[in-house]
Amino acid sequence: MSKTCIAFIGAGNMAASLIGGLRAQGLEAAQIRASDPGADTRARISAEHGIDTFADNGQAIEGADVVVLAVKPQAMKAVCEALRPSLSPSQVVVSIAAGITCASMTQWLGDQPIVRCMPNTPALLRQGVSGLYATAQVTSEQRLQAEALLSAVGMALWLDEEQQLDAVTAVSGSGPAYFFLLIEAMTAAGEKLGLPRETAAKLTLQTALGAAHMAVASDVDAAELRRRVTSPAGTTEAAIKSFQANGFEALVEKALGAAAHRSAEMAEQLGK
């Protein structure tokens, strides 16, 4: 990435997070530029990161090696069609817009190298994870550029099939909300058991953080970690048995299946 020039189309939260991550990794401000229709947004991101900003998307991508589409899915078609005359075949387009397929982008952009990504919101804290899929036109160098871009805000994992992005959306794209829901539920249950709400919230949050750190650092899988903290006939076993008796695993599977189905459905709707 030492000489790569990156242009962001759209300068919202995710773009700002990526730019911040790239700058933290040593990419010079002169190698990054961004466009956005909002004057306040342009002023803010320019002040924060020292990069050049533009109101015109075509101007922003001049001389760029990587063009990052960081706009809302509903705006993608119009943005792509307007951008098409300004793109060159040597520029790789990296899309972080949910639900827009490579086929749709090819229809709007032409036969352009495209990398489609599914990041998640912890990327805002550089603790994200992203699934990446590249079309056949993407070179090995461009794959490295896309991987370095998303790695600036967390982990980047390549996928063999584009359809797998629906599963990525279900697992990690929407995943933070599932954990937030569990945190909500545990906090509320702790309060009902007699704890002050603030105490229940702090206990739940720190437990979630500690468990995640243990899982990441461990050389065994989550099932084994669970077994190690579940003493026979103990309190943890009582809770786990209650979860399982009420169909916990099946409920999770059904929920993620619904998210994946909706992801595919949205791709069909937004790609028209």
Topology:
Layout lengths: L5 E4 L3 H12 L7 E4 L3 H11 L2 E3 L2 H4 L5 E4 L6 H8 L8 E4 L6 H8 L4 E5 L9 E7 L5 H12 L2 E5 L5 H10 L1 H18 L4 H21 L4 H7 L6 H11 L2 H23 L2
Helix pairs in contact: 4-5, 7-12, 8-9
Cα separation of the termini: 35 Å
User: What is the third-level CATH name, the topology of the largest domain?
Assistant: Rossmann fold
Main β-sheet: number of strands, strand sense, barrel status?
8 strands, mixed
Helix/strand-derived category reads alpha/beta
Radius of gyration: 21 Å
Low-confidence runs of at least 5 consecutive residues: none
The CATH first-level class of the largest domain comes to: Alpha Beta
CATH architecture of the largest domain: 3-Layer(aba) Sandwich
SSE topology string: EHEHEHEHEHEEHEHHHHHH
Number of strands: 8
CATH homologous superfamily identity of the largest domain: NAD(P)-binding Rossmann-like Domain
Strand order of the largest sheet: 3-2-1-4-5-6-7-8
Helix percent reads 40-55%
Characterize the overall form.
elongated
Mean of residue pLDDT values? 95
Give the count of helical stretches.
12
What number of domains?
Answer: 2
Report the β-strand fraction as a percent range. Answer: 5-15%
